[in-house]
Amino acid sequence: MIYDFPLNEKSRTYLRLESLFSQIGDNLEQELPWGHIACFKAIFDLQELLERGDLRADLIKDLERLGQRLNRWAALPEADLEQIDHMQTDIVSLSRQLLSSPRPGARLKEDRLLGSIRQRFSIPGGLCAFDVPQLHHWLAQPHARRLPQMRGWLADITLMIDAIRMLLRLWRESGAFTDKVAINGFYQDVAEGAELIRIRLEHSQECYPTLSGHKNRFALRFLPASDSAIGDVTFQLACC
């Protein structure tokens, strides 16, 4: 199993957006109405993240930095120049489209139905028919009518998610896993210039990692998933 830990607020936001869009994708095609309830919850969480700052500007800057990194990789003897050229083309295309696109999430904010039910999702048990009759009326529609509308809500976010997925994929691929040992479940190290720390751990070890740190320094502590004590833990680590 692989755990991804962010080393700054920006990469933390990217990972959260990636996770939320995966949740939306997993539930979007479900025909049962309650599958779309899970979609709404993820959409509103995603909307809240988008409203916290200008993610589009940050993403364009990170894509530019990624392009510069690819230029350095192209100078290496073992570089796959065709693959790098293809990625550079994708980066330039995504950056240009992001510059000319509307603010991600604007369509969600303007939608009448979403605006009328959003606050109810923060109330425990607040999705009964007497709380949100407009939602239950919408859910009673055939799946073939609900699905295109949900895809329309997400249309102006898809481009941003494509860019985030590309960025995270190349970050992840830039770090090679190496074998490490956490003495009595504890390990610390430096990660100069890294955005993510990745931990690969066998599930059979009955423990899980937690990370504390910021920017260049970090500490890992492995905690037991059962009542057994933690000894030395072997794992693999990648700084990306």
Which features would summarize this protein structure in a list?
YacF-like, cell division, 240 residues, 8 helices, alpha+beta, single chain, 18% strand, 53% helix, globular, cell cycle, ZapD, three-stranded antiparallel β-sheet, 2 domains, four-stranded antiparallel β-sheet
Structure write-up:
The chain has helices at 9-28, 33-50, 55-74, 81-100, 106-110, 112-117, 133-139, 143-173; strands spanning 2-6, 178-182, 186-190, 196-200, 207-214, 217-224, 233-239. By secondary structure, the chain is of the alpha+beta class. The chain folds into two domains: 7-173, YacF-like; 175-239, YacF-like domains (YacF-like, Sandwich). The strands form two sheets. It has a four-stranded antiparallel sheet with strand order 1-4-7-2. A three-stranded antiparallel sheet has the order 3-6-5, with no helix packed on it. Strand 5 and strand 6 (217-224) form a beta hairpin. Helix 3 (55-74) packs antiparallel against helix 4, helix 3 (55-74) crosses helix 8 (143-173) and helix 4 (81-100) crosses helix 8 (143-173).
What is this structure, in a nutshell?
The chain contains 8 helices and 7 strands.
Write the topology of this structure.
Layout: E1 2-6, H1 9-28, H2 33-50, H3 55-74, H4 81-100, H5 106-110, H6 112-117, H7 133-139, H8 143-173, E2 178-182, E3 186-190, E4 196-200, E5 207-214, E6 217-224, E7 233-239
Antiparallel strand pairs: 1-4, 2-7, 3-6, 4-7, 5-6
Helix pairs in contact: 1-2, 1-8, 3-4, 3-8, 4-8
